[in-house]
Amino acid sequence: MTAVTYLEAIGQAIREEMRRDEAVFLLGEDVGTYGGAFKVSAGLMEEFGSERVIDTPMAEAAIIGSAVGAAIMGMRPIAEMQFIDFITCGFDQIVNMASKFYWRSGIPAPMVIRGPSGGGVKGGPFHSASPEAWFFHVPGIKVVVPSTTYDAKGLLKAAIRDNNPVLYLEHKLLYRLPELREELPEEDYTVPLGKAITRRAGEDMTILTYGAMVHQCLKAAQTLEQEDDLDVEVVDLRSLMPLDREAILESVKRTNKVLIVHEDTLTGGIGAELAAMLAEDLFEYLDGPITRVAAPDAPFPYAPPLEEAYLPNAEKILAAARKLAAY
Amino acid sequence: MPTPVKMPRLGESVAEGTVGSWLKQEGDWVEKDESLAEIITDKINAELPSPVAGRLAKILVQPDQTVAVGVDIALIEENADVAASQSVEAAPGPDAAPVESPARANVAVMDKQSASDGNGSKAAVQPSRVGEEERQRISPLARRLAREHGIDLNDIAGTGTGGRVRKEDILAYIEQQQAAPAVPSYAAAAQAPATQPVYTPAAPSAPKAEPAPTVIGPDEELVTPSRMRLAIAEHMVRSKRTSPHATTVVEVDMTNIAKWLEKNKEDFKRREGYSISYVPFVMKAVCEGIRKVPTINSSWTEDNKIIIKKRINLGMAVATDAGLVVPTLYDTDQYTIAGLAKQIAAIAQRARSNKLTVQDMQNSTFVVNNPGTFGTIISVPIINQPHAGILSMDAVVKRPVVIEDDAIAVRYMMYLCLSFDHRILDGAGAGGFLQAVRTKLQSYGREIDVY
Fold first, then answer.
1. Residue among B364, B426, B343, B63 at smallest CA distance from B227
2. Which residues of B fall below an 8 Å CB-CB distance to A?
3. pLDDT by residue (tens digit) across A126-159?
4. Which residue from A230, A238, A323, B376 lies 20 to 30 Å from B428 (Cα-Cα)?
5. Do B140 and A327 lie within an 8 Å CB cutoff?
6. What is the residue range of A245's domain?
7. Residue A281 is inside which H or E element, if any?
């Protein structure tokens, strides 16, 4: 058995689910003959044929709209966005169709929309998006963000088997990261939607985060332990919708200080909702202000030094955590 | 030349005050009227506003120390240059807090005054300093823990940014309390009243033996009273020692007022935005009674004179979470009943939200207490020194009473209980006053003009 990358884990999940269930199929730009822009679907067309691995025109509204149609007819489509930035072209199909269909007609729309998100790869303003907050706001859609290879496979399998539309945001920076290579279980497994995981236990502060930022937070937590003697807990949310309220509240109730870290921009982000929830439920358990570290409210920059300045990283997290600890 | 800050007079019965805590440290910049310290006297914890803007140069009276009214307790240096450079050093850093625009207005002026060194970062630093400075810095968690463990926050020194009390501080304090045996903690409590000399003009000044430490049994609990509780205790003992109390009671037929309230209370509240109750009616009647018997509104002095007060400023007892306070309703006799209702609502609101000012706590001349809200029917109140008397209005209850022509009717009845200083007044004066109050209250017909 060999260790696989985050990207290979996604490919494995699709392949195994397509083998397990004939209703599962993949559609998107260049997913078939070319094997996907990042090669997530390499080899799938050979195995399953062009009726289950469909190359589509460059039209996201059509990709997502077709997926909704197929889903309500009993299929389980996986719609790939070549870059998640372009999901906006299919926005109407997601927020007006996929999300509401079950509520409106009682017919479920089991489908997955997935694609590479996030920055740190010099992708510039149109290839670096973190669109989770837009969809997090829409009732009827689940949103998941894997941060590890194990979760990448397990969460995608769970998303495919779920009877609701699920937005699965993979992070392109993690695709081939050597340190994320992992040997995965041979047997079939899933990671349940709506369950957070504690990546590092601690007593002095909770960091709530997800996606690629999990790794920056862990790095910062290690420094805080070594240099500041602070015992920081890092909770990887994994599912943004539904949120694992129980785990979040339990951790913050215990540590009394909370830092929220996300790569998406600050205003109206996931952190805003988490902050409101914590203020409502745990006000008298807070020993310091709910603090957020996020990208500034600006479009994603192209120039590498600007990108570095723009993205949250371990140093920025460290500075915010130290200030909060001293509060 | 530094400006001295003096111990304020917080109520005329009080000759001294205790510094509860300093809200500023030596070297801190203070704005004019910004809270400087917490002063504890008699029945209130009041914040002392700074008389001038400047740097707090020296603290002369430490927390828990009691000094006479008028004594210098701190010095403030008004030299702006010194102040500005000091506060820049003390400020937590340019990124400490968002720049707020209201604070910025102040800073622009201050910067002009001290712009000679051309320090550009000052504008960014100063507002955060001003904006962050609050009365007491404490985290929500620490506040809850302190409440749950009955800890007086004044006893705890915060170790967070800017001296904020946070979790660690409370936990360390609890641990320390648990580790220390019961005796020292008692000793600390016993010192508090000892620092506030009990005011006993007539009592022989026999040397008091140090009380033996209290020993409690297994089914008893020892509670250390709060400062306010101690102040109330001291005042009550002092009042009883000072004035020979006599109490007399009259019964008042409140039927017409009760029926008017039943009919108009809701409308009044909707129209005016504040409630009306029996209290303004009684206050109005008390003013009438004082006009008839002016010695009710007086004080017996230490050199055996009587001061008759021309202004009628009724004190109003308000129960708050922290304890009993008696804020003043100035010139009570100048208001209509509706006007009094409005003043009462405003003062009660200030008392309950802890916003009473020094002014609110001074210069009362007589107190109207309303234990009737708790359903009591007869009370024997203790005089708020140095007044000549205190009136309790008890619950208005329906009772069968004998009216004119020996008929029996159901009427709304209330007892008014007056405790008075028998040095100043005799039964005749007290009775005359109560008679006048009763006559006024019973003079209302079915239609009452409260405006």
1. B63
2. 139-144, 160-161, 164, 166-167
3. 999 999 999 999 999 999 999 999 999 999 999 9
4. B376
5. no
6. 197-326
7. helix A270-282
